[in-house]
Each structure stands twice: as structure tokens, then as C-alpha cells.
Design a protein that fits this description.
Two copies of one chain form a homodimer. Chain A contains twelve helices and 14 strands. Chain A is α/β, with parallel strands linked by helices and about 350 residues long. The longest helix of chain A has 16 residues. β7 of chain A pairs antiparallel with β7 of chain B, so a sheet runs across the interface. The structure holds 3-isopropylmalic acid (IPM) (2 copies). Chains A, B: This is 3-isopropylmalate dehydrogenase.
Chain lengths: ~350, ~350
């Protein structure tokens, strides 16, 4: 088994280092190889996703990813910007199924913007399609408008699209996941306006017939954005497209108040996966040793479970994290009165010790 | 001056009736004419936006709109569904500028999901472009995929697009609005992924140079969805496209906890406008006389201010609503311990009396 370790930019290197230490202490049989990605790769090789990094990722069973991006790359041409690396990895590895849990840990309820009774015990799984939709649809670009409100004017355009097999496979992923949970799926669409999402809704409904034990409902994306705020605990598994999933999974993550705790997994059809924290590269605190490594450590646990077939090792990490939280250690992002503030390294130490 | 009154479906008729009573008592010189729209129009004329209704709306200075929609129309072909009426009105009247205030009234802070300190005093103005983007972009439909992940498969697609003048005019609306407020605009885009929104960002930046007194910043839509939850009061004027605006304006409205209080205005370039509550037709409580008419009454106030050039009359309505809230009257949606629960009609009576 081989893991590609891609720390990336900003706090990426610090948090991935802790996850690697946690993996090391488990003493499992796999190889880890590190490579540059994002801004760091651009600096060294002139491209955010160099051929060598992509090759390593492809030949590995899993990618452990930190974060990419920094304000200083904002002026680069789009294809050279750090976030293109993540889009490139998703596309080239065919990572169509993104798992974004939004969990509110008992000890961290106070960190949420929401009233405790609305958020305590939250455990949603957002499944976002990750290789289709308007993210990758062609054609796209700039041109002269031939119709619309201002024919003859300069315009820019993108193409939203989903094909039947793309919707079918992500729907199956959602129904299968729901079977292991509370057997409820909410499919989020905008079928009242978009052809793509009427099609999406039709197909999810069809696939749902193969899972009569799973309850399926449909919700418009605007309503979903509202219901997440109003009563997040009403959701269990949510499945949606790439663009809506981008927005809703971040909204749901922030509802918990502890985005520094939330892992994610992006899988392809052979369970090869990319694992990364739900938060970003936080250039403002990079290098200060204060970032929360737990989302990355929990991403490593997801990796063990989904791609490396080591569910016991995954569970060991997860319970170690629970223990550390229970012991009162907190990085700055989740710190509150009465708990002990620690840095990235100390937090990693504590998880290692608990294992 | 002429107002087209389109109550629509569900609670639409009840809440619009109260707004009409409030307008009547102001004793201003305008004509009101009522017509069917949405499901009600479909039942009577076989179309949610009959020619006669569209004609009335076009020749009026303003449209006072209730709400449309009911589960029972879900099985109709898309062009016949109630919500097509609202899309048709926007398109045919050229209502490109949608104003969606998200205000948290002092007395209603407790109704929010958010902790009081995060939401008390919230006053955001979301300006959503309303006639462009993927809502109306052509081509759209179903076809056989020629490329992508599954060439040969059935697929559905839509076109996202914005032309330069469309972005310029909505940007100007936002900067002008900001000048009358705290002189800050946040433009929300997804320039890191979409050609359309890189173009959007470029043009908003250009237009911003004409408004050196207004501070402009840019935010990705996923981050905006998070920041709205984390620190909504950091926003003032937010400007964005039709699709992102649909999602974010509903999220922001729900953050206040009192969506039954939030009006909206949709204007064209000659200040002709459509005014409607931010909430929907609520078929579950329709006909029970319990719906909150205040969002519709406040929409009538926006109408007086924006389309009918009667700012004093608008202010009279708004202060009457404030007075009624202060007196402790509440419809069910905003009721809390210690306040008096009233129905739609009594709430209307109270506003009329306060005027
Ligand atoms: C960086 C960006 C391209 C990316 C996305 O939009 O998918 C990010 O927001 C995410 O959700 O992983
Ligand atoms: C009913 C629907 C077409 C509409 C929209 O998406 O614009 C609604 O959600 C709104 O925001 O007014």
C-alpha cells in the first residue's frame, strides 16, 4: 500500500506533519512518499500540479492532502493558481464522490454560531459529486453574445451538465451510505429552473427505487440553504451536484463552528481516494504552529477506512481524538474558557500519546 | 399611477389582502387592479402567467405580488408550473435588480437560530441579478453527450452566462445602494472555477473604480455561505449573480429567524418593480388566517419608495409595523413567550390602526 503525501501551502505542511506522525505510530505496513503541490509546487516547478506529483498520486492507493493557496498567487493566470492542483487531481484520478461530514462534537457545541439545542449532536453526511457539473463542463470561455439581453456585447459563459451514469453512480454512493446510517437521503437540486437538475432529480428518483429501504426526499438548493440554518439536525445524508455541494458543504461545516475538526474524502470507482481537511490553507496563521491538525488527522482515519481497508486503525485514531478532546486540549480555533490552549505539535503529541 | 395586484396561491391571497388594506388607508392617488397568477391562473386559464395578467403587469407602475406554488402542481410540465409565472414576469418586465434585505428586528432576535449577539442588529442588503445567469442562458436541454466522462450517454445541460452590460448595470445598482448605506460592497463570485464569474469579478472591479468612496471586496460563494453563518454582521451590501443570489439571499433571510418579516423588490431600468415577500406560498397554512402579512406590507412600503415615489407613505408603513411589533403582537411564525399571538387579519388591523 502506498500513500502520496501532499502537504501543499500555508498551514498544510504543519497539519499534515502531525497526521503523518499519527500514521507512523500505528505501525502499519505502507509506504509514504511526499511531493509538492499548489503554490509550493508552482514555486519549485512552475506548475501547481507537476507531472511528477500527479504520477505519484495516480500510482498511490491514497493521497493525504493538506491545503493549497495563498493571496500571493491571486495574480497568476488561472491555470497556474494553486487551487487548480486540487481540480486537476480530482479530474485525473476520477474522484467523483466527495464525502463531507458535518459533525458537531459534544465538547465543541459552544463554538457554533447556532444555539446549542439546534446544533448539539449534529451528524450530517454531505455527498457532493466532484468531477462533473459546471466545474468541468465544456464549452466555456468568452465570446461576443449573439442573443440574450445584449446581443453584440462581450460575454463569458460556462456549461452545466450531468450525464445519466454520472448521476446514477453518485446516487448509488448516497443510498449505500444511507443504508449504513439512518436510511434517509435528501437530494438537493434546482429542478424548478435547471434542465440539468430536473434530469438529476429524475435519475435519483429512479435509482432510489433500487433502495426501497431508504427514504428519499428532494429539496431545492435555496430551501436547503435555509433548512440547514433552521433545523440542521433534520438532515442525514445529503446528495447534490458539484456546485451546490461546494456551497452547502461549507455552510454545513461552518454551522458546527469547528471546521478545524472536519475531514473529507474524495473517492473514485476503485476506492482510490484523496483525503483532506475541510478547511483551507489559512495563510494568516501559517508557520506559527497554532493550526488545528485534527481535521487532517481525522482525514487520515477516513483514508484508512475507505482506501486502505484498515477500519480498526481508523477507529483507533478516531477514539484517540475523542480522548484528547475529552481531556480538554484545544487549539486556538476551538478554544473556550476552561480548556487548555495548545499548538499544532502538542495536539499531535496528544493524539499520538492517546494511541 | 397603477398597481397590478397579483395575490397568487396559498397564503398569497390572505397576505396581499392585508397589504391592500394598508395601501387603501393611506388614501393615495393610485389605481389597483387584481389578476390571477401561478396555480390560481393555471386553474382558471390553463397557464400560470396568462396574457392578460402579463399585460396588466406591463402597463402598471408596480406589481404587488403574493406568492405562488403548491405541491399539487408538482406533476405539471415545467412551463405550466406556478413558479414559471415569476420567472416570466422577471424576464418580460426586465426586472434585473433584486433587492433582498436581511434585517433582524430588535424584538425578534430570539426567533433566530443564531446566538443573539451574532444576529442582533443585522442589516444586510443582498442585491441579486435577476434576469441573467444560468436561469435564462441558452442553449439548455437534453442530448447525447459527445464528450465528458461518458460520451454517448444521455445528458442534460444548461448555460451560465453574463454579458458585460448586465454585470455593469447590477454593479452600479450595488455601488449606488452602498453610497446610501455604509459604503461597502462585497461582490460574491466563483472566479476560481467559472469563466462567467472571473468576468463578473473583473467588471465589478472596473465599475468600482467609478465609486472610489465605496469599499469593494470579493468573496467566493462557498466562503460567503460560511461567513454568513459565522459573522453575518460583517456584511453590508452584497452583490451577486442570479443563482448564487438565490441561495445566499435565502440563507441570509433564514439567519434572521423571521423570514415572515422580509420584503423584496425587483426593479427594471425604469424603476418599474415587482414587490413580494421573501417567503413562499406556505400551502400547509393557507386559508387558516394565521400567515404573517408583514413581509407583504413591508413590500408595499418598498413599492411606494422605489416605484411610486412616495417615500413619506413608505416611512409611515414602516413605522406602523415597528409600532405593532413594539406593542407585542405576533403571528405564529414569530411568536414567543410573553407576546400576543394574532392572526393575519388582526395583524393587518393593527398596522392599519397604527397608520
Ligand atoms: C478551491 C476550489 C476550487 C474548491 C472547489 O470549489 O471545489 C474548494 O472550494 C473545495 O470545496 O474544495
Ligand atoms: C421559484 C423560483 C423559480 C425562484 C428562484 O429560484 O428565483 C425563487 O426561489 C426565488 O428566489 O424567487
Amino acid at each position: 500500500m502506498k500513500i502520496a503525501v501532499l502537504p501543499g501551502d500555508g498551514i498544510g505542511t504543519e497539519i499534515v506533519a502531525e497526521a503523518v506522525r499519527v500514521l507512523d505510530v500505528l505501525d502499519l505496513k505502507f509506504e509514504m512518499e511526499t511531493a509538492l503541490v499548489g503554490g509550493a509546487a508552482y514555486e519549485a516547478h512552475g506548475h501547481p500540479l507537476p507531472e511528477s506529483t500527479l504520477k505519484l498520486a495516480k500510482e498511490s492507493d491514497a493521497v493525504l492532502f493538506g491545503a493549497v493557496g495563498d493571496w500571493k498567487y491571486d495574480k497568476l493566470d488561472r491555470p497556474l493558481r494553486p487551487e487548480q492542483a486540487i481540480l486537476g487531481l480530482r479530474k485525473n484520478l476520477g474522484l467523483f464522490a466527495n464525502f463531507r461530514p458535518a459533525i458537531c462534537y459534544e465538547q465543541l457545541v459552544g463554538a457554533s454560531s447556532l444555539k446549542p439545542e439546534l446544533i448539539a449532536g449534529l451528524d450530517i453526511l454531505i455527498i457532493r459529486e466532484l468531477t462533473g457539473d459546471i466545474y468541468f463542463g465544456q464549452p466555456r470561455g468568452r465570446r461576443t453574445a449573439v442573443d440574450g439581453h445584449f446581443p453584440g456585447a462581450e460575454e463569458a459563459f460556462d456549461t452545466m451538465r450531468y450525464s445519466r451514469p454520472e448521476v446514477e453512480r453518485i446516487a448509488r454512493v448516497a443510498f449505500e451510505a444511507a443504508r449504513k446510517r439512518s436510511k434517509r437521503v435528501t437530494s438537493v437540486d434546482k429542478a424548478n429552473v435547471l434542465e440539468t437538475f430536473q434530469f438529476w432529480k429524475d435519475i435519483v428518483t429512479e435509482v432510489g427505487k433500487e433502495y426501497p429501504d431508504v427514504e428519499l426526499d428532494h429539496m431545492y438548493v435555496d430551501n436547503a440553504a435555509m433548512q440547514l440554518v433552521k433545523a440542521p439536525k433534520k438532515f442525514d445524508v445529503v446528495v447534490t451536484g458539484n456546485m451546490f455541494g461546494d456551497i452547502l458543504s461549507d455552510e454545513a461545516a461552518m454551522l458546527t463552528g469547528s471546521i478545524g475538526m472536519l475531514p473529507s474524502a474524495s473517492l473514485n470507482s476503485s476506492n482510490q481516494g484523496l483525503y483532506e481537511p475541510s478547511h483551507g490553507s489559512a495563510p494568516d496563521i501559517a508557520g506559527k504552529g497554532v493550526a488545528n491538525p485534527l481535521a487532517t488527522i481525522l482525514s487520515a482515519a477516513m483514508m484508512l477506512r475507505f482506501s486502505l481497508n484498515q477500519p480498526e486503525a481508523a477507529a483507533r485514531i478516531e477514539s484517540a481524538v475523542q480522548q484528547v478532546l475529552a481531556s480538554g486540549l484545544r487549539t486556538g480555533d476551538i478554544w473556550s474558557e476552561g480548556t487548555k490552549r495548545v499548538g499544532t505539535r502538542e495536539m499531535g503529541d496528544a493524539v499520538v500519546a492517546a494511541i
